[in-house]
Write a structure and sequence with these properties.
Low-confidence stretches: 42-63
Strand order of the largest sheet: 9-8-12-10-11
Oligomer: single chain
Order of helices and strands: EHEEEEEHEEEHEEEH
Helix content: 10-25%
Shape: elongated
Organism: Elizabethkingia argenteiflava
Largest sheet: 5 strands, mixed
Distance between the termini: 24 Å
Membrane topology: Multi-pass membrane protein
CATH superfamily of the largest domain: Outer membrane lipoprotein wza domain like
Strand content: 25-35%
Main location: membrane
InterPro entries: Poly_export, Poly_export_N, SLBB_dom
CATH class of the largest domain: Alpha Beta
Pfam families: Poly_export, SLBB_2
Structural class: alpha+beta
Radius of gyration: 22 Å
Amino acid sequence: MTVDAEYPIADPPALRIQKNDRLNIQVSAKSLELAAPFNVVAGAYKLTEDGVSTTSVDKSGTSPGYLIDQNGNIEFPVLGILHVEGLTLNEVRDLIRNRLIKNRYISDPVVKVEMLNFKITVMGAVKSESVLTVPDGRMSLLEALTKVGGLSTNASPDRITVIREENGVRRRIVTNIQTQEVFNSPAYYLQQNDIVYVEPRTADISPKEDRFWKYFGIGMGFIGFLMSTIAVIK
């Protein structure tokens, strides 16, 4: 990687929903009564000729969200079965919003959709193997490596593999974080359920190399953070 070189900033790919993902979906409107049937966190509701009838209430105040089943569907209150696999969070938002308007349930709904179980597994030659939870659904490969303490002394930075599931198929993406190509790699921005495996080296590492890889990992993590921040601002 060349010092003081310029590297193009790629936009992160849209997060697409997969089977076994879990979504938090909230519907709001000017009238709380109109929005209530579509928010399971507030309890279970049903529509009657006289209006809204409460049938049960979740006293814990929490909701496990909507689990995407093996057919790629969720069962949404009132609207029924919705196929959401392969859609982005914004596309799910628009799907629900349009259905609410089309069926004349709510004329001006505001729909919020979030991913609840975006997780990344990092293992192999790293300081601390871990499963990372990503609340905002956005993390780069370099950020993930930094969060687990960086590479260990016997890591192979040119042999970092991301195992990814797409359309029911697993594929391996091997990335070299020592070159600028890491920024163009499809593995640079991680996706939900990705597994990051850092291949170890068998040769012994000298103290000088140990210090180099320690600071290299910290530096790459900082670069990754800056790139992600710039992409958000952009």
